[in-house]
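FW: tagging you since you asked about this chain on Friday. Here's the raw sequence from the shared folder, copied in full. Didn't touch anything.
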Amino acid sequence: MDDIATTLTISKKTIYEHFDNKTDLVDACVDFVFDEIARKIQYIQKIETNPIEGLFQIKKIALKHMANSSQSPQFQLQKYYPEIYAKLKKRELNVMGKGFKKSLKRGIKMGLFRPSINIELITRLYFNGMQGLRNPELFPAEEYKPNQLLENYLDYHVRAIATPKGTLLLEKYNTQKNQ
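HL: got it, structure written out here
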């Protein structure tokens, strides 16, 4: 709290006028960052031309906020503020999961995703996988670069649910991206 007060050139008393304790401050910061990320993702989901391209656009946002090291915000939250981390995980699924489910349904209507997929299960598998990618014990930063890790995960995810038409679109997207 001393460092925050010094950086903001305010007194600790001023901070405590707005937050009862450090945990409340961390919780408010997590909510603020989550809301910012959620707004960006929801915007992409709203304007996406197709759900496969949308996933890769969302990846760009995720990369800005993802670090797979022991210094990552997610790792720090999990270690020092497990209640806030649990709340964040639940909120990710509830808030962003709604848009993800809409995207899956749209992909089915467009013939990109198999109509037989279980939308609820796929949503939970996707979010569990995304959370797992941020685990530095599973994916040490020295061995796994965030961009490549996300690329591989999205490719794996799309291929698991795609129709042949969706797979062709994914391969076309991958080819264009690599040129």
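FW: The chain has one domain: 2-178.
HL: agreed, and Residues 82-109 form the longest helix (28 residues).
FW: great, closing this out.
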